[in-house]
Design brief:
The structure is a homodimer. By secondary structure, chain A is of the alpha/beta class. Helices cover about 40% and strands about 15% of the residues of chain A. Chain A binds a DNA duplex (16 and 16 nucleotides) through helix 2 and helix 4.
Chain lengths: ~325, ~325
DNA sequence: CTGTTAGCGCTTTCAA
DNA sequence: TTGAAAGCGCTAACAG
């Protein structure tokens, strides 16, 4: 593989000149520039990113730390982060923490060895992630993390949207399948849903589990396997995965959605529009979130020195109906 | 941030000695080793991976190139690759090609700038990816790519398993929802299914689409929206996503699965066991594939100089039944 | 067993 | 506008 010296030698210029044409914005004479560019193509020269990184104490990479890539919401986030970073000439270093703070810590230490330009982290759900000392630009996404700026949807207001929707449909026997009490995000969504209901004088039964399919199914069975007059007419969940599990529970119990029970999820994962019936849900602007997160780490845009929240939107599909 | 020189100075040894204790396998006196280790902890020294990478012309990273991270199968693959690589002290650089050869090419060129230890690539589905010149250890996963060793499930035999299962259940009016003709993997699965059927004298109607939910739904409707005596009693699909779309089509047409029609998928994505009814499918040993792929790039194991195939297994759940 | 030292390929002063 | 040269932090000879 040719290096910058080979190019310089072949073009009869100094390495400094080659470096300057690589940097594009420098002041190099037109003739020399063209000569160097031709030589670069001729030798098929690709600058060594590692050497560049060493010299600048910063590589063209951003670290992306997420709990679980098989979670459709995080997969979607990763997809957009990768696309946007890529367009900005940055590679993405992926770390998966499995929601384990120990692993998270190790992964971040490991990432830092590569001197990335920035770090985008969705911290583990439980137990405050302690901040790590580092001078790389860091943002938290979706969940709060130490003292780093947070970029996220407004979970509280998003859940409020779901409550309003259900009430507007005339439901009064409403239940909520929450995420774990220990998870702040679950807490916000739950509070947003319950407070909105409460301020309208409505009541709500709450059960609590995790943000996954299985939890939605188990808890759903608990809520639905009772006589019709004791059964909620509408159930909201803290995640689409729970809602999809809930759909399965309803189906097992031979209950029709939305005729026997209305269901509303949260996140709007791709699958939400493909299940039967199509899921009414609260949609997060994932791409915007990803864009802001990348911008924050590169400082390209107006860097957010502080938190930034996006509004969720209600997507009405087939799983909710007028009582 | 402290560097190796700081450690050497503080411990009153040479940088060479520090480097040797970092490398672990070197010959360093016990006392010195312990002194250096203590100093490292004391200064919270973390070796600079970039400098190390420059010196060795190889970083502790592997590149993972996949078409789409929101595809549950690839997400699963990424998860295992990350976990295994991580255990081996390797970070993973993630690239998403969106199944576009142009992007794939650009992404790989970009990855190579980081001088990764290895490259694991699931090439784009259509159009042969031309090989790229490079001395980094490269393996193709799931789909063939240029002259690189391929690590994959045996698609042909896996699909054969599905055919045998359906026949053993007494089905004779069988249909197959295939992937795109242009995609070699789709071709193998289709051939495996059809040939197995044919060699038993069974016939099969084939429709063709893509490996996604929407395709399964559309094509499913085509197959199922007809009088009972013209309708297939069993349908196999080239992917679980198609099968799940098909489930939705059946439900829309008020057809019961598996009573009115048996359905079998391929891949065994996590969702397969959560839909209603739970999906009978062909399971890929994703973790084994990931493990071999990582091993191949690190040369840790007996490096496969040639292709390596794993057998798929039949997972019988609730979506197929005796005719 | 330990110290010294020459780079890895690049960017970035500093001079000319 | 261009060239020369000093490292970035580390590893791997080579010497002792």
């Amino acid at each position: 593989m040719a290096n910058i010296k080979d190019v310089a030698a072949k073009a009869n210029v100094s390495v400094g000149t080659v470096s300057r044409v690589l940097a594009k914005n420098e002041t190099v004479g037109k003739e020399l520039r063209e000569l160097v560019e031709a030589t670069i193509r001729e030798l098929n020269f690709r600058p060594n990113g590692v050497a560049r990184g060493l010299r600048r104490s910063r590589t063209d990479m951003i670290g992306l730390v997420i709990p679980d890539i098989t979670n459709p919401f995080f997969a979607e986030l990763a997809k957009h982060v990768e696309a946007i970073a890529s367009r900005a000439g940055l590679s993405v270093l992926l770390s998966i923490t499995n929601d384990d703070p120990k692993i998270e810590r190790a992964q971040i230490d490991s990432l830092l060895k590569s001197y990335p330009t920035g770090l985008i982290v969705v911290p583990t759900q439980y137990g405050a992630s302690k901040g790590w000392s580092s001078d790389v630009a860091t943002v938290a996404v979706d969940r709060r993390c130490a003292g780093f700026p947070l970029i996220s949807v407004n979970h509280y207001r998003g859940a409020g949207l779901a409550a309003v929707h259900l009430m507007s449909l005339g439901h009064e026997r409403i239940a909520y399948i929450a995420g774990s009490v220990d998870a702040p995000v679950a807490g916000e969504r739950r509070a947003g849903f319950l407070n909105t209901l409460a301020s309208a004088g409505a009541r709500c039964e709450v059960v609590e589990g995790h943000f996954d399919y299985a939890s939605g199914e188990t808890l759903g069975r608990l809520l639905l396997d009772r006589p019709a007059h004791e059964r909620p007419t509408a159930i909201a969940t803290a995640s689409d995965q729970q809602a999809i599990g809930l759909l399965r529970a309803a189906s097992d119990l031979e209950l029709k959605v939305p005729d026997d029970v209305s269901i509303i999820g949260f996140d709007d994962i791709p699958l939400a529009s493909l299940v039967t019936p199509r899921l009414t849900t609260i949609s997060q602007p994932v791409e915007q979130i990803a864009a802001r997160a990348v911008a924050a780490t590169t400082g390209s845009d107006g860097v957010p020195l502080q938190d930034e929240f996006f509004e969720a939107t209600l997507v009405v599909r087939g799983s909710t109906k007028q009582l």
